[in-house]
Amino acid sequence: MLEAARSKRFNALFYRYNSLYLLRRHFRFIGISGDLQPAEAADRPVLYLMNHSSWWDGLLAYHAAGRSGGRDHYYMMEEEQLRKYAFFRKIGAYSINRHSSSDIGVSLRYTAKLLREGGNVWIYPEGEILPLEHRPLVLKEGAAMVLRLCPEAAVVPVTLYHGLFFHSKPEATLLAGQPVIRPWKDMDRQSINGMLQAVLQQQLDEHRHSILIHKGRMPESFRPLMTAGRSTNEWFDAWRGRASR
Q1: For residues 106 and 57, is the Cβ–Cβ distance under 8 A?
Q2: d(CA 51, CA 74)
Q3: Which DSSP symbol is given to 71?
Q4: Is the pLDDT of residue 242 over 70?
Q5: How far apart are CA 204 and CA 210, in angstroms?
Q6: Is residue 43 assigned to a domain?
Q7: pLDDT tier at 234, thresholds 50, 70, 90
Q8: Which residues neighbour 175 within 8 Å (Cβ) at sequence distance 6 or greater?
Q9: Are strands 171-176 and 154-163 parallel, antiparallel or unpaired?
Q10: 178-188 pLDDT, tens per residue?
Q11: Residue 53 belongs to what domain range?
Q12: Residue 137 — φ and ψ, nearest 5°?
């Protein structure tokens, strides 16, 4: 597997590039609700579980984590992709090869090691990118194995809901749920996995509902994570306003 090789200098440069160029160029709005560093988990490492529905998920999580401060954050990434984009190792990415059971074990033990050493780790327990409206969510048992190896960890479920609504650029919202703290060592993998699966799906459904009842408008509960950029239709509206004067 490919381990993370964090570089503070590269991380600082890439964070600015990601937030000031990549995300602003491709999204009109990115917001978050909830707390990525909840007080209930202040003395614990945090394992973030996030649904996986787009190529952007890792960069959105990275941006949100950078705004939250606190400990170093690490991100599990498919090995084939990390070999292609090896520079992601410098911002905390490490690999998992889901086609090899032995490599999966190495990656999960490495994840537990990062948590025990005080890092926070983001993983995508569905194991692959699936359509946003796909149901039911089916999680692999990797998160459960990590929690049994590092039972002091807290789980923070993070759901992402995104779409094209009233603008030419998509809008994305992240919801950080209540931390889940259990005696992981006393639970079997199937029980842990079933509980996490239910928590993440219920949160995603509630997240989706909050967008639907606002008819695609961004709910006020989502704090902006970047300065909103103008979409094409807003540039057209501004141009028409000037032309009509």
Answers
A1: no
A2: 16
A3: S
A4: no
A5: 10
A6: yes
A7: low
A8: 32, 33, 34, 158, 159, 161, 203, 207, 222
A9: antiparallel
A10: 999 999 999 99
A11: 8-243
A12: -70, 130
Q: Give yes or no for a contact between 176 and 47, defined as CB atoms under 8 angstroms apart.
A: no
**Closest CA relative to residue 64, chosen from 223, 229, 240:** 223
CATH code, 91: 3.40.1130.10
Determine the 3-state secondary structure of 106 from DSSP. Answer: helix
Under 8 Å between Cβ of 39 and 226: no
- 38 and 178 in contact (C-beta within 8 Å)? yes
Whole-angstrom CA distances from 69 to 37, 65, 77 are: 8, 7, 21
User: Which pLDDT score is estimated for 69?
Assistant: 77
pLDDT in tens, 46-104: 999 999 999 999 999 999 999 987 789 999 999 999 999 999 999 999 999 999 999 99
For residue 92, give every residue at least 6 positions away whose Cβ sits within 8 Å of its Cβ, in sequence order, or none. Answer: 4, 6, 11, 62, 72, 73, 74, 75
What one-letter code names the amino acid at 192? Answer: I
Q: Is 137 in contact with 202 (CB distance < 8 Å)?
A: no
Whether residue 39 lies inside any domain: the answer is yes
Answer yes or no: is 93 within a domain: yes
For tokens 């190529």, what's the residue?
55
In a domain, 117, yes or no: yes
First to last CA, the chain: 62
Distance CA 221, CA 34 (A): 9
Coil, strand or helix at 165:
coil
- Name the domain count of the chain: 1
Q: What is the mean pLDDT of residues 155-174?
A: 96
Reading the block at residue 123, the tokens are 């993983």
- Whole-structure pTM value: 0.92
